[in-house]
């Protein structure tokens, strides 16, 4: 029975597990995405997301709490500057886990965990959709004369053909 077993121990002792998750969190902050097993990715998500929530409010107390988890001052600095700036309006769900298949060596389930706001492929489509919904009538009126301008350039080409026909 699994009564009260809320933490996946990942076949490691407590000290090793905490240091491994801290190193993985630092790598995630540095590279914005990492490949690992599904079990480690799920454990990292539980470990990392409260730290991002703490980083949204930049106080000395929050920096010290996050540093006690990460143990890397460069990762803490980047988390509070770059990552917190991008996720400031997001209420949660800062990471995404994408399953990749099985590893060749031992057939372990592999996954990629990434920071959601740093993926340009997914965010590019969302930004374009916002631009299309915010157009006003003045933008449509300004676009109409632009559409007529190529027609005006085609008209002289027709005139030259008429002149050729008239010459014959």
Automatic annotation (TrEMBL):
Coiled coil: none annotated. SUPFAM superfamilies: Prokaryotic ribosomal protein L17. Keywords: Ribonucleoprotein, Ribosomal protein. GO terms for molecular function: structural constituent of ribosome. Pfam families: Ribosomal_L17. PANTHER family: LARGE RIBOSOMAL SUBUNIT PROTEIN BL17M, RIBOSOMAL PROTEIN L17. This is Large ribosomal subunit protein bL17. It comes from Flavobacterium akiainvivens.
